[in-house]
Every structure is written in C-alpha cells, then in structure tokens.
C-alpha cells in the first residue's frame, strides 16, 4: 500500500469511530464540551461504562490476552456509547483489522500519571520501537480520541511525555 492509502485508512477509521460512538472521551474535558445539551445522557453512558467495564474485568479469570482485551474494549464502547482513548482505539483497531490495511499496532503507553492509547499503521516491525525517528517516517497515526490521523512523526509533537518509546508500548500487532 502507498502512504496515502494508509493515511486515508486512518482518516476513515477516525470517521467510523466518530459515527459509531456518540460520547467520546468523557474522561477528558473535551469530551464534555461536545454535545453540550446531552449532559444527562453523558453521565448515564459514563456510569454504565465504568460499572460494566469493572464487572466484566472482575468476571474474566483467564491470563492477559491482548486481542481479547481489545475486543472487550471495543464491545464496551459500543454497549455504553462512550469510550476513552483505549476503547476508541480498540474500535478503530478492529475496524482497520477488517480492511486490507496491514500492519496495524495498538499502542498502550503508560508513563506514571500520564497514559494514552492509539493505533499506528505501517510501522516496520524490523525497526525497534525505541528507534522512533526511523519507523515513524513511513508510519501513520490513528488517534480517534482527538480526531487525529496523519504522519506518525507527529507523535513527538502531540505526546512528548511518552518518549522514549518501549517495546512494551505495543500491546497488539496484526499483519
């Protein structure tokens, strides 16, 4: 695939998430600004999401399985009609997985009190994750929480707190 095709796929994934999940990012101030007349519905969705997510997590007794986890996040976002970066990125990841767009990485970055999840398309797996300047050149970012898509090199500007990247930041890879 061409770089422009990866960019178009990331843009389509962000649009898909926007059209599928009504209340995005209710764990951020920006999420509460959208749809300002629907505060009651937002509270109901957020409470349902927190309660249902905790209930499902408690019921799961198996070992950690990244793909299962992503599928559960996707399901929770759809059921609740809301999601944070993890759930929204799971919806985008599964959407892209059903398209002829490979490879796809689900990033889950934890840095103390700061964390964020997003999807990266076309990252060369032969290049170490920590070598961001090399792999980001041809990769494309898909971040449905902030409606962002484009060259992965923008990660350095948008999320400076997450650098340096680590191998463990890639939770799941398809393709």
Features:
175 residues, alpha+beta, five-stranded antiparallel β-sheet, 7 strands, 46% helix
- What value does the average pLDDT take? 95
Proportion of strand residues: 15-25%
The number of domains is 1
Biggest beta sheet attributes: 5 strands, antiparallel
Strand order of the largest sheet: 6-5-4-3-7
- How far the N terminus sits from the C terminus, by CA atoms, comes to 13 Å
What is the number of helical segments per DSSP (H or I, 4+ residues)?
A: 7
Radius of gyration: 16 Å
So what's the overall shape?
A: globular
Classify the helix fraction into a percent range.
40-55%
Based on helices, strands and strand pairing, what is the structural class?
A: alpha+beta
Could you give the order of the helices and strands? HEHHHEHEEHEEHE
Low-confidence stretches: none
* Strand runs, count: 7
């Amino acid at each position: 695939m061409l770089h422009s095709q990866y960019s178009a796929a990331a843009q389509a994934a962000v649009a898909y998430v926007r059209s599928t999940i009504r209340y995005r990012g209710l764990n951020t101030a920006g999420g509460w600004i959208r749809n300002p007349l629907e505060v009651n519905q937002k509270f109901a969705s957020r409470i349902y999401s927190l309660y249902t997510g905790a209930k499902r997590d408690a019921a799961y007794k198996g070992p950690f399985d990244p793909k299962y986890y992503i599928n559960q996040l996707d399901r929770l976002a759809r059921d609740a009609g809301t999601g944070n970066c993890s759930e929204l990125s799971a919806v985008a990841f599964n959407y892209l997985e059903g398209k002829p767009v490979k490879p796809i990485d689900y990033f889950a970055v934890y840095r103390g009190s700061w964390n964020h999840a997003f999807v990266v398309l076309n990252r060369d797996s032969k290049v170490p994750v920590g070598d961001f300047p090399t792999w980001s050149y041809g990769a494309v970012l898909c971040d449905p929480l902030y409606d962002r898509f484009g060259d992965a090199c923008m990660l350095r500007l948008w999320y400076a707190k997450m650098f340096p990247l680590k191998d463990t930041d890639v939770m799941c890879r398809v393709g």
